[in-house]
Amino acid sequence: MNILDKIIADKHKEIDLKKRVVPVSQLENSALFDRETLSLAQRLRNSESGIIAEHKRRSPSKSVINQNLNVADVARGYEAAGVCGMSVLTDGKYFGGSLEDLLYARASANLPLLRKEFIIDEYQLLEAKAHGADVILLIAAVLEREQIKQLSEFAKSLNLEVLLEVHNEEEFQKSIMPSLDMLGVNNRNLKTFEVSTDISKELSEKIPSEFVKVSESGISSVETIKDLKNYGYKGFLIGENFMKTDNPGKAAEEFIKELEKSSI
Ligand SMILES: O=C(O)c1ccccc1NCC(=O)[C@H](O)[C@H](O)COP(=O)(O)O
């Protein structure tokens, strides 16, 4: 069993349990459920830097990254830095995140928020909406085409945007459909943890222009972003590079300033 298989097996158990504890009606009646969502896709289209900054305490590939920070401070810092959106990992067992992290981020910053999760069930989309998300992630490596269709269409019915993540051409070919807003290429192979931005470059020309292209993972330099922009990428998801510092907001601010300076 690879790590993705383990995560998904645990996720099934977690969702079964949660459905018994928190009924759908409770999610639908929550204060945030009817809030007007923000568009990450639109911000990325209009942005020069295109940074989506992540809150990530730990990960299967890196173990502990930073467990000493307050998510509300991180969200405020990212907003002040001028990022386009914030990604919040909500998986507890493997990433040390929670839905409460999403709530605190929502309360602290007026940014499009991505619920970074292993989504396999519509219930998780209702949770995302109830905890202030604007965008959800669907990972092609763990979903069949029919599931991607069903989940993305349900997300759209909730006014949530959809970022579909692929890592190879096969995943891309099976997933492409109109109910997606953004197409993310994960530079990290989630089964082996190998990281290379070459995969973003290889897949770039196959992605139709109506989808906002996002390159995810393993990005730590302004040069990499400048290079990926030549391949049509408008969004860049960065986690560890900011989160490994004492002040992720400041790290993001300095990164964006350097990017803007080098683009003049
Ligand atoms: O990061 C991992 O180790 C990981 C392992 C298994 C499944 C998903 C994983 N990461 C999720 C992500 O996609 C990243 O957190 C995100 O793209 C940011 O990556 P980075 O900038 O390299 O922290």
UniProtKB/TrEMBL annotation:
This protein's record includes keyword Amino-acid biosynthesis: yes
> Catalytic activity, per the record?
1-(2-carboxyphenylamino)-1-deoxy-D-ribulose 5-phosphate + H(+) = (1S,2R)-1-C-(indol-3-yl)glycerol 3-phosphate + CO2 + H2O
Domain Indole-3-glycerol phosphate synthase spans what residues?
A: 4-254
Give the protein family.
Belongs to the TrpC family.
NCBIfam families documented for this protein: PRK00278.2-4 (NF001377)
Q: Which domain of life is it from?
A: Bacteria
What Pfam families is this protein classified in? IGPS (PF00218)
Q: What is this protein called?
A: Indole-3-glycerol phosphate synthase
Q: Which GO terms describe its molecular function?
A: indole-3-glycerol-phosphate synthase activity; phosphoribosylanthranilate isomerase activity
> Per the record's keyword annotation, is Lyase included, yes or no?
yes
